[in-house]
Write a structure and sequence with these properties.
Elements lengths: L1 H6 L7 H4 L2 H20 L6 H13 L2 E2 H8 L3 H13 L3 E6 L2 E9 L1 H21 L5 H18 L17
Helix pairs in contact: 3-7, 4-7
């Protein structure tokens, strides 16, 4: 991963910044997001497309507004991602029989195939990105990151402190 290593060279950063977890996480997040996007770019998709497919693959059909809320993607932005995936026949939208005002989004067989294809470059990227860590360290890191994410998603944390830049859309 020479390109990514040069992008995050720590030699020129102030030690006080490297001792600030939120700074380091933000820097790593930007690198990870860029590399993840590059990993699937050859399919003409963006990370929010992958997020939609992965969420539907895990959760099954969801109301479109629920999908947007789960992903933290603005509802109006989600429509564009869903439109693109629908054009590719990866998902389908149908009226909710319980509430005709709502659209339910479902993964199609084509979408399941596409999701499986996307998992390969994403998994390869994870191995490359985390290659400096042992398997045990990766497990610990993921446990800690998920704990921090759950804490940040806690209703007790003021959500008005989050911005659109905190989203993948």
């Amino acid at each position: 991963m020479p390109e990514a290593e040069s992008a995050v060279s720590t030699s020129s950063w102030a030690p006080s910044l490297l001792a600030t977890p939120t700074y380091v996480l933000a820097k790593l997040g930007r690198v990870a997001q860029r590399l993840s996007q590059e990993a699937i770019a050859d399919r003409g998709l963006l990370l929010p497309h992958f997020s939609v497919l992965a969420t539907l693959g895990d959760a099954g059909p969801l109301a479109q507004h629920v999908l947007a809320d789960r992903l933290g993607i603005h509802r109006s932005h989600l429509v564009g991602y869903v439109d693109e995936l629908e054009k590719r026949e990866a998902i389908c939208r149908q009226r909710d029989p319980q509430d005709r005002r709502r659209q339910v989004v479902s993964l199609t067989p084509t979408g399941r195939t596409l999701l499986a294809q996307l998992h390969t470059p994403i998994a390869e990227l994870q191995d490359e990105f985390l290659s400096a860590l042992s398997d045990q360290e990766r497990t610990i890191l993921m446990d800690l990151l998920v704990r921090l994410l759950r804490h940040a998603d806690d209703p007790g944390i003021p959500q008005d402190r989050l911005s659109p830049n905190d989203r993948w859309d």
